[in-house]
Write a structure and sequence with these properties.
This protein is an alpha/beta fold. The chain is about 40% helix and about 20% strand. Helix 3 (about 45-55) packs parallel to helix 4. It starts with 6 loop residues before the first helix and ends with a strand.
């Protein structure tokens, strides 16, 4: 796992945060056992943060770009209004199958709708006004995802983007491809006068943007 804080501090934070439920705990473990890049999982601490944000906002509609094994989707869905819906998009059929299994095991299949395919193709077909968007997919695609979704976000709605510090590489002298993409996205958010932003140094960095 790539952490911007020390393992000791991260463990301390987890110890003093509400535990993940049994299904999320099992999914966390199985993701580490069965997938090649378990670091993509939000995990306990970030999952509780996503759940807390969702509970504070009480969204009716959430869009997630990047499902992976469904951990973050279930955390975000915890704060949905009654009869609310989270729509999650991912291109990977194998990990989406795993997500489907655990979402059903967590009795959230009525709240979470999964789509398999390219987000840039699926997003324009979604006829919703979103209260909350979570971007956690391919890093070079972030700016395009933002461009497509911003007009679908209600006034006062939020866009969260994960990995915006990309292991701290965004401040290195020779950032890699993904870090450069995150630099571009962070600059784009900062320059957009439709938004208020705060970049949180949580895990791998979360950019929180509110549509004014």
């Amino acid at each position: 796992m790539h952490l911007l804080t020390s393992e000791i501090i991260n463990e301390y934070c987890e110890q003093h945060s509400t535990p993940e439920n049994a299904v999320l705990h099992e999914l966390n473990r199985q993701t580490h056992l069965q997938t090649e890049l378990p670091v993509m999982l939000s995990g306990h601490l970030q999952g509780r943060i996503l759940s807390m944000m969702s509970h504070m906002l009480r969204p009716k509609y959430i869009l997630e770009i990047g499902t992976f094994t469904g951990y973050s989707a279930m955390c975000l869905a915890e704060g949905l209004q009654e009869n609310g819906k989270l729509i999650s998009i991912d291109i990977n059929e194998e990990t989406t199958e795993m997500a489907t299994h655990f979402i059903a095991k967590n009795n959230m299949q009525e709240k979470i709708e999964l789509h398999i395919g390219k987000a840039i193709d699926i997003m324009p077909t979604l006829d919703y006004e979103f209260d909350l968007v979570f971007i956690d997919a391919d890093k070079p695609g972030y700016s395009n995802y933002f461009n497509i979704v911003i007009d679908k976000v209600r006034k006062g709605g939020f866009i969260l983007a994960d990995n915006v510090l990309f292991h701290g590489d965004v401040v290195s002298e020779k950032p890699g491809k993904n870090a450069l993409a995150m630099q571009d996205y962070n600059k784009k958010m900062t320059a957009d006068n439709r938004l208020e932003n705060v970049l949180l140094p949580i895990r791998d960095g979360i950019m929180v943007s509110r549509k004014k």
